[in-house]
Amino acid sequence: MAVEEVPDADAFRREVLEPAGPMVVAFWAEWCPFCRRFRPWFERAHAARGGRFLIARLDDEGNPLWEDFRVAVVPTVAVFREGRVAARRDGILGRGISEAELAAFLDATLTTRPA
Question: Quick one: which of 6, 41, 85, 86 has the most CB atoms within 10 Å?
């Protein structure tokens, strides 16, 4: 599956909150150099895990969902299960998230189920 853009709250509900399986969302911004570097890592991480999870990207361009999830630093990655945030990894200001940090986060959160 390719990375899907989630443009608004209705699409977010439909594409992220309603599916039963895990959904990994990257909060990102086109203006952010760390986000532009992050995108191919995110896509490779999905492919390396056999597409076991759906993925979506949520740009900040006027998107109120950023406020709903209190995203302050990009990229931020969140794993949703059954309509709720099961795990989250915020980027570090001025550095973002490395490819190794992303892989470790996904491996840890996608192999364990919340209690």
Answer: 6
The predicted-structure confidence for 13-42, as pLDDT tens digits, reads as follows 888 888 878 888 888 888 889 888 888 888
Within 1-115, strands assigned E span 4-5, 23-28, 54-59, 76-81, 84-90
Please give the CATH number for the structural domain made up of 4-111.
3.40.30.10
Q: What's the rounded Cα separation, in Å, for the pair 60 and 49?
A: 27
CA distance 47 to 51: 5
Domain boundaries, the chain: 4-111
- Altogether, the residues listed in the chain come to a count of 115
Indicate if the alpha-carbon torsion angle 55, 58, 64, 66 is positive or negative: positive
